Amino acid sequence: MANKDEVSKQFLDALEFRGIKRRDFLKYCGATAILLGFSESFAPKIAAAIENATKRQPVVWLNFASDSGCTEAFIKATYPSPAQVILDILSVDYNETIMAAAGKQAEEILVKSRQEGGYILIVEGGIPTKKGHGMIGNKEMLEVFKENAGPAIAILAIGSCATTGGVPAAKPNPSQIIGTAEALKRLGISKPLVNLDLCPVNPEYLVGVVVNFLLLGKIPDLDHFGRPKMFYGQTIHDNCERRAHFDAGRFVEVFGSKEESLNYCLYKMGCKGPMTWSACPKIQYNDRTSWCVKAGGPCIGCAEPGWTDKFAGFYERLPGVKIPGMDGVEAGADKIGAIAAAATAAGIALHAVATGVSGRIKDKDGGEK
User: Fold this and answer.
1) pTM value?
2) Which architecture, in CATH terms, is 236-350?
């Protein structure tokens, strides 16, 4: 049996073979530490956890009613690549979108995985429950899910289609599509479940959950929707790079306007950021290059359960949000700019009064008034 040093060398040699230098790998581990809310000093521990994962955790990745956008987001991620690192610590035994096998051979692989059990089941896409509306290998998708959920040690529902049905489950939902949690409930199956909302899921969220498990031996703390708090603990609005414009009452009201070129707040253009919980502004997509609002589009709220119906239409303004510094006050988008600007002006005035009272306002000659 190989000792730790041999295991580490084998792992690093495999990375070198893939063209990944140890320095880049450690930088990746440092970035992952920050992603998980640790300091960069945890990088060596994360590196060790990944290096020592000698028995690759088997994974069965099922695609149901979706456009496979989450698979696409995952396999097209750039390095430091979630795909490259995860594939070194996971054994993705079945994913019909990217696997070489097809037809009968693919089904045989899936049967073998079920027989051996002990895998993580990744679910992508909603599950149709109306007969004949979703079939895989002449079986209903709900039946396929039931067969493969049983032997799994845990389930990851990735993307909003898998968590609560997403776009395919939008009204009128003729296929009666449901999410993973609802499917488990209907089938009477109890399994650890992690929901990773977004459309598509950010691959770094998936990496964070896996590395958290390797490092701490458990799934991360979850919110009441079963989502990791480290990624869904704050609203888009809390961390948005345009938040200062919102607070100052500066809004885009027409696309193509001067206000848009100045990157003013998109709340009046339908941005759902104040009601959407996700770390999109912090983590972003495409090697942390950009995200929806940075690219000029309002947040459509795809991290929220039932977002397709809850937030339709996507360019319509939210009926009201809480105004900063004015507890309990709400206003429609038409009034919010004026109220926010008034609040800002009032704050400046109050600051001036307080400064004057404390004797720190200078007259034109430099004396105190």
Assistant:
1) 0.75
2) Irregular (4.10)
